[in-house]
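Lab notebook page, bench 4
Experiment: in silico fold of construct C2
Operator: M.H.
Input chain length: 73 residues
Purpose: comparison with the prior construct
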Amino acid sequence: MPTPEDIKGWIEQNLPGSQVEISGDGRHFEAVVVYAGFEGKSRVQQQQMVYGALGDKMDEEIHALSMRTVTPQ
């Protein structure tokens, strides 16, 4: 079962320069992801980038993830 620190690391590793805060109980997680690469992208595209950063872990290890994505500005 992943920890909030695991998820934070996976996102930050795959979205270099991002700042990530994760909270959760081991099955359900909430994320706030601040990333300059979100600039000019729709909310859906931003969330797809986070899901892409997590890859198969979303299907296999993370039961539920709600997120807020923002740019540094």
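Observations: The beta strands are 19-24, 28-34, 64-70. The longest strand covers residues 28-34.
Next step: discuss at group meeting.
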